[in-house]
Amino acid sequence: MTTTAERSNQIHQGRNVKRFREMLGLKQEALALELGEDWSQKRISLLEAKEVIEPELLSKIAQALKVPEEAIKNFDEQAAVTYFNTFNDNSFSNSNGTFHANYCTFNPIDKWLEVIEENKKLYERLLDSEREKVDILKQALQKG
Fold first, then answer.
1. What SS3 class is residue 99?
2. Which tens digit of pLDDT belongs to each residue from 82-108?
3. Is the separation of the CB atoms in 124 and 131 below 8 Å?
4. 15 closest CA partner among 44, 58, 61, 50
5. Residues with Cβ < 8 Å from 4, sequence gap 6 or more?
């Protein structure tokens, strides 16, 4: 079991800044603009290579990214991957880890054709109804 000190040594704050920046869809230039005029794309690149970032600077970056400082300090990608890999969704795998697909018990094309046929019948009934209306109107005009 790893201790908190060991865990904090594994976390690369610069890489976490990069991950959050990318998740937010920001380019390095955009983050540099948010941080001020003394920042550039190259400086952001150098920052993202740093394992530990000074607390004041980390606070400023967190504000620019609109994420909590603690998120940048504590995000551990390997722990997140391990966490999500512990879930077992039976719809995708069984105890052996093999994939199970759900198969339709009907042919979707046949169902689609059935719907088309139903639409044809509805249109035919609608057309018959319109023909009856026209006949009734013709008879009314002939009488009148």
1. strand
2. 766 666 544 455 555 555 556 667 787
3. no
4. 50
5. none
